What does this fold into?
Amino acid sequence: MPEMTYAAAVRSAMEWEMAKDPRVFVMGEDIGVYGGAFGVTMGMVDRFGKDRVRDTPIAEEGIVGAGIGAALVGMRPIVEMQFSDFIMNAMDQVVNQAAKIHFMFGGRMSVPLVIRGPAGAGTGAAAQHSQSLEAWFHHVPGLKVVMPAFPDDARGLLLTAIRDPNPVLFYEHKLLYKIKGEVTESDEGVPLGRGLIRRYGTHATVVTYSLMVHRVLEAALQLEQKGWDVEVIDLRSLVPMDIPLVIESVKRTGRLAICHEAVGRGGIGGEIAARILESEAFDYLEAPLLRITGLNTPVPYSPPLESAFMPSVDRIAQSLATWLVHEGVSA
Amino acid sequence: MQQIENTTTPITTATALDWYRTMHRIRRFDETIDELFAQGKVHGTTHLYIGEEAVATGVIATLEPGDVITSTHRGHGHNIALGGDIQAMMAELLGRATGYCHGVGGSMHIADQSRGNLGANGIVGAGLPIAVGAALGFAMRHESHLVVAFTGDGALNEGAFHEAANLAAIWRLPVVFVVENNQYGMSGSVKEMFAIGHLADRAAGYGIPATMVDGMDIFSVWETASRAVEAVRKGQGPHLIEAVTYRYKGHSKSDANRYRSRDEIQQWRQRDPIDHLRRYLADQGIDPTELDRIRQEEVQAVAQALQYAEDSPWPEVRMLDDAVYALEEGDHA
It folds into this structure.
């Protein structure tokens, strides 16, 4: 299996599907010769031409809407948002149009559209270019939301997203673009809605996704040195969400922690918590649950402030350790 | 309104009679909806096309199979002009399982892909980028189909119009923007909400050719649309038509018409598009009883549609379980 970066894996999925399916094309701002703000589409225009690797004006509402229209006449568009924050300019098309067309027209039509773009903090891009707003879209029936943490998942999940007949928001974390990993270059997609246990453990279950998978795994190593053994679940997609996997894990560990970079208030963590409290796993809980999240502020600019905003490996390890000690879990 | 073109084109009597029938079907359908709302028989809201029938009928008469439209919140007329099923429309408005959308959508959400209607839209202007995307799909596949993007005057002040018009222009896409200027966006008069006299003038800023037309005269609408459609189909890029028209009824059921006078409504009614066509047909020697018969048949057809809708079952709540997401591609049998 070749090793490639996360960005290359995203590109590999698009190229694979474009080579195979003439209906697939990608459009967005500066994705052609420029190669995209983060280089994800680098070189694609040379292979597929300007028609299918289409530079657009700075017009997010227009291009998301155009993606929907093309999907309605049988194309399979991928729309790149230069920063996922810019989806705000296209909210009507995402929420009132793409999400609802299948439903409100009585199932007569569907919108096979992928909107992909970089999310997350850590690059000093400040408040309007660093957000993780997945919870907003998780809240809207009709959308699917995918947030891969590793290159092989980025490729496999994007293949599946492109083939999905529904609109999918595909969030790529900026700090993951350069990480490398082995990637299977096959036609097989990774199914949406299946999480993975990245690390088995007995003392607690930590549910996470995207960049935070890496930080939680590192924190788990720190805890291991202190004698605690935590299980780490990578959700991979938020809609659909693999709640059965979390339930099964919590029944074994008896404790649930949730970690995400997004602002804690109204975040995915609350939803996961509620789903577990409603489930049979409730009877197995031995401790109050713990959320480790971004601060309830916009993302700040200055490096020490930005670092404080995001859950760091140390903050995650410390939060988990404090929690486990408080709950009397002996290491 | 001296800017408005008014030319006469030879139209066969059979075609004109078809238009007459379609316009009556649209009018009777929306009159019936109006009555049903007044009687409290349907809930929600609705937007009636009464007065504007010549626009949808004349424009859609120029389309060919495979062409598509995007419609607006005032969309009943567009779907009927496309040959849409008025039984399924009526059932949808009454919220029945046999409706176009199984009762999920209602008045503002009727689509009929089989006839080329990509959907009405409850959000002003939102159909315009979607229309552009459909045209992009046709262009990328080198198909000769085109898209008619119906819109009201109000949508021209939405950002969506700006982005859609620019995309269509730079990519020279096969889109005909048809602006149904019915003089008001809800209560906002075009005189107050635009600093330009003719909405068609906006098109110049995008490099899009535009034509104004008397939207109460179906012959002018048809001729203007025919020319636009011909140019667009040849690959000359998008075109914008401003059809000057008028909605007789209020914006929606909450409208008490406080922003306009009875005189104004009356003056426009004197230019009624159906009366105009009827006079033409009478001049062509069509027996008035024949015209009355056509009207009566459409009254009957709408009455039957209402009966069908009222006899139809309500949707089962459990249908919602599977209604939100489309199945995986392979699952479509």
About this structure: The longest helix of chain A spans residues 211-226. Chain A has a mean pLDDT of 97. The radius of gyration of chain A is 20 Å.
